[in-house]
# Entry
Amino acid sequence: MIIKKISIENYLCYCGVKEFELSDGLNIILGENGEGKTKIFEAIDWLFNGRNSELNSLVSAKTLNDTVIGEEFRVRVAITVEQYDEKKIISKSFTVKKTAENECSTASYMLEGIEETKSGEREQVDGQKLLDRIFPFQIRKYSMFKGESELNIFESEDALTNLINLFSDAKHYEKYSEKGAFLREKAEKAVEDSTKADSKNKRLYEDLEADIARLQRERQGYQVHLNSTLDEIKKLEVNLQFAERYVDNADALDTINKRIKGIEEKISDATKKIDENYTTSLFDERWIAVNFEPIHKVFADKINQLSFEKRKQQTEFDKEQGIKEGERKALAKLLNNTIPLPANIPSKQIMQEMLNAEICKVCNREAKKGSEAYVFMKERLDAYEKTQEPNKNEARINEQLFKINYTDRLVNLNVSHEDNLKKLREVRTQIKDLFEFNNDRKKDIEILTEQLEKERSERERILGNSSIGEDKLNDVLKNYTGWQRDLKQKGKEQIDYESKLKDIESQLKNKNDEKDKIDLSSANSFLIKTRAILRDIETIFNDTKEKKFDEFIEKLETKSNNIFKDINIDAFTGTIVFNKKRRSNKTIVEIELQEAGRPFYKPNQSLLTSMHISILFAISELTTEIQEEKFPMIFDAPTSSFGENKTEQFLNLIYNTGNQKILLIKDFLYTDKNTKVLSIKDEFKNVKRNKAFWVKLERPFDPNNLKSINTQVITL
# Structure
């Protein structure tokens, strides 16, 4: 079957009648997004599968706008096909009557079929029956695909059954296998009834049946566990395959991240050690007084001069006041006619300390007890203590020379400053040491920062060499060992489950053999022979069905891989593998892309699309071989993830494949940024094809007004 022509009339953006005269080879329809390309696919799909609901939504807004209220026009989609040198036309249509501005009603919905003989005679037939005869709905399932997401037909478990029913010889044995199982079960029941008729063996027979039922339940349970374990092993192998690609990078990243963390910690420690709170130190650490000593010297000189003058005045004043004679004599003796020191200097504590030590710590000479020096110090201490006693003559002394003792306070302040001078002399060294320490730490930070930048650059290089991000690389290293451990554990579980299943199968065989022995001794021999024959027949049918099934899968796999490699010439592809499994008492096939016998981890969309298209092309070839009939394949945007270079290569390759193919793509079109003019790129001239069309909206048009939209068809 070949589609020779597609006709679209007043359908959505196609105002009036638009036709595509197609070739029986590769037909390419170019169209930018929003220009009407996808509407062609939708029109064909409506013809094949659409219903008569919401017809108003299919009407061309421009045609409706151009029609006078009360007048009618037709919406129609039709294909003209050629099959066995005969022409057939299938069309779906309905009439539209404009009832008001922007409003209409629909009627006369119909699906029509016309057959034209070689002699040119035409006969109108039932459209649906004609469609199902020339293009069966089972075939259409593997012939029309919209976008890349619909290409994976084996996502549905029923897809395999449908495929086998269409193309595999195994389908011919299905009914025989079912009939064989039915007859064998009847024979089994007849033999069991015959055996149980013997009361001697009935109890033993029933015990064996109970054991067999129990073992079958155990087998089913272990099989579920085994299937689950195998699925987990597959996932772990995929994870490990992914991890093995990046584990070296992940390890290097982990090492360099640790070095970076160490450097950052050193920088942080050095930064914390730097103390640049100089303003606080200026006052709290008395840095502001670093140059205080010269000032203090001037201050001390003035205080000493003041103190001296005060004592001189006080002495004169005391003489004038007529201090008691004994005190004056003692004082005169003590003073040797010199200006005395203040009574509290040295202090009482110091004087007592010198007496106890029998040494004058002022002149640093010995003052043995009883010596002149010792007596002098003792008298000096006694004189001071007397000054602290209440003055008995105070009542008669009416006048004081110095009423407030500010000079003594200044003297004490001077003494205090003298005590602090040593610390102040150390401030300059402290400042110098702190500045040097801070500068050294800053130099350390500069060196560490330079090292950090080098390590970060190395990390960027490692990440640049990896196709995954840092978080995933960290996960790889973290999970790699765990995945290996889990895989080893699941491998042990697999061996354990398989061993238990093997043991259960052995037990089941023994139990069934025991049953058969009882049957041989108790049941009717004719029934036993009949059962044996039916068992063999069922086995033959099942084995033949499985063999044919396997042959079909192998052939489909081989064809798919051959096409897959042709589509991806000069590029790594991996291998398409069809895995047959039993699940829920039915056979399913899972398609897997492998590399080196292991699952291909996350292949890109382009590779997946290539794989799915290869399988579909292989199915198409099998259709031709098995049914001796060709069917068209229609794809809307199947290669959007390819890129133009690969698309060009892909189109040139499928040009040489058999069967009619209609591809609707948006590649090879270019819009000038300045003029907004849409054109076809020169690269399209290099694309091999049998027919090509360009669909685009008539210019000018209002993008916000459907009434101005009309797609034109240009044959290239």
About this structure: The longest strand covers residues 86-100. The chain is about 55% helix and 15% strand. The two ends are 24 Å apart (CA to CA). The domain at 151-171+527-629 is CATH 3.40.50 (Rossmann fold).
